[in-house]
Design goal:
Oligomer: single chain
Radius of gyration: 17 Å
Bound molecules: zinc ion
Number of helices: 1
Helix content: 25-40%
Length: 93
Amino acid sequence: MTIHDVKCAKCNVPIEGPVDAKPESAVSCPVCGISDTLENVNREAAEYVTSKAADALSDKLAGVARGSKFMTYKQGPRNHKIYRFVVDYSPDL
Ligand SMILES: [Zn+2]
């Protein structure tokens, strides 16, 4: 993942940083100015994707269970963390 994939969750614009950004380099949203280190931003964006993938899988399993008389599926608790930094994510299931 590169920084160019990461967006500000609030403004939906790409996060900007130095061309030769290092993990400790500060990167920020050009609109609202929210800022963190590249390392933290990438980690949060990766968490966001993991959380989205888990939700999508959970929805899929729930759908399968609904269509079957022999299966019940109880959805686990969702992760309701608010992410500041996100990436475009489309479930591929
Ligand atoms: Zn922003």
